[in-house]
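Lab notebook, bench 4. The sequencing result for the construct came back, and we need a structural model before the next group meeting so we can plan mutations. Quick request posted to the team channel:

Model the 3D structure of this chain.
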Amino acid sequence: MAGDGGGYDLVAFGEAMVRLCPPGFGRVEAATMLEMLPGGAELNTAVGVARLDATATAGRRVRLGRPAATWVSRLPANPLGRYLENKAREHGVDTSHMVWDDRPDARCGTYFLEEGAAPRASSVIYDRANSACARLQAGEIDWAPIVRGARYFLVTGITPALSAGCLEATREGMIAARAAGAQVVFDPNFRSKLWTFAQARETYLSLAPLVDIMSCSLEGLQGFYGLAGDTPLEAAKAGHDRFGWRAVVATTRVDQGMWRNRVGATVVAVDASGAAAAFTDRERDVEIVDRLGAGDAFLAGFLHVLLHGDASHPDWARATAVGGAAGALKHSIRGDFPILTAAEVEAAVETTAMRVQR
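Done. Here's the predicted structure in token form:
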């Protein structure tokens, strides 16, 4: 795959981990076996973008030597690190810019997932402190050649939560991406087991002016960013006026039981004149096989449309619909990765249910 950087549709930066899960709703403390799967927010979206591109274009970009997506991270040079790299490459994601940690004590982040059934909630136990990625230092990644010619740069709030070095690397990547003409996509993805609300809020606010497309719930826009507004349209317009955001993606979820939800999404886009328009996808009832990675799948479908459309006149309505379909479908797939095809997502889109609010 391409190794000199440049020309990627998506550059995704963040940690991926090995997910370990007792089968059959088992408890970790009583487990006799664990299912092993890869997962990580930014990598999940990169896999979705790569798969949708390949299945929509019959792998045109790969044949041209420019994979649609590249994933940048820091992995231990051991079997677990190679496992994660192999899983990314298996789905067409470029890994040629990986930073490898060959120290004897280098470790791979892992998390244990206990799947619950009412009244016991599902839970996650992290074992990721001092992972190879968390040990990343500022200046360790040469961003300029990686983001040269890239269309989008994706990072979430999980990455800067890992360490001071990861925060600085995040800032460096965002700055380099914008300087290269790429649009920065950011999802706060707050994890209370990694840091406090106050710590997260301070960091999110410091990074906000470097963001072009924000993926955040209405509650997050109000709580983390202090944006006024009772609707995504009002809060997103406030985000544009304060931080310069071009668009805001706000997904919604209503629990209807442990394994049944109702999901939806609104995308607010602000044009060059400052006029805002909200595009709302239809709500969908989903039966949940695995809910992890649904928001990442939404972003993959959303970006897929923007990447294959007219960059000067984005089809926000269609991007919202395709993102909604991809996110809903992900609930039916085991594991964090959105193992979807473009045809499957298209079949799940009902564009007649779209509406625009101005």
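Residues 202 and 352 are 41 Å apart (CA to CA).
Will bring this to the meeting.
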